[in-house]
């Protein structure tokens, strides 16, 4: 039995195309076919420090593909108030 310390491929879910591009420029090893688990750990840490994501997780499937899944922080961009009713005792 052998244990691999590398993933074959990495897929992204929940990351914007700009963030994926930034990741690939900061971590050029993402462009290669083999990425070490320690490097995936660094990537997860980097994404969490960016404060754009509520959660960031990595999953590995049976075919050795890593899925980096990010849950973006939602920001309130607009509040709309309808009506102006006043209630009192």
Describe the structure.
By secondary structure, this protein is α+β, with helices and mostly antiparallel strands. The protein has one domain: Ubiquitin-like (UB roll), CATH 3.10.20. The chain contains two helices and five strands, in the order E-E-H-E-H-E-E. Strands 2-5-4 form a three-stranded mixed β-sheet, covered by helices on one side. Strand 4 (53-60) and strand 5 form a beta hairpin. The longest helix is centred in the middle third of the chain and has 13 residues, at 37-49. It is elongated. 8% of the residues are buried.
Summarize the structure.
The chain is α+β, with helices and mostly antiparallel strands and 89 residues long. The protein has helices at residues 17-26, 37-49, and strands at 6-7, 9-13, 35-36, 53-60, 65-72. The longest helix is centred in the middle third of the chain and has 13 residues, at 37-49.
């Amino acid at each position: 039995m052998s244990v691999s310390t590398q993933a074959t491929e990495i897929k992204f879910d929940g990351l914007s195309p700009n963030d994926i591009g930034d990741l690939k420029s900061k971590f050029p090893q993402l462009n290669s076919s083999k990425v070490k688990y320690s490097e995936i750990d660094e990537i997860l840490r980097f994404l969490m420090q960016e404060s754009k994501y509520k959660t960031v997780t990595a999953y590995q499937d049976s075919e050795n593909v890593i899925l980096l899944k990010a849950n973006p922080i939602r920001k309130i961009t607009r509040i709309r108030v309808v009506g102006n009713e006043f209630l009192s005792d």
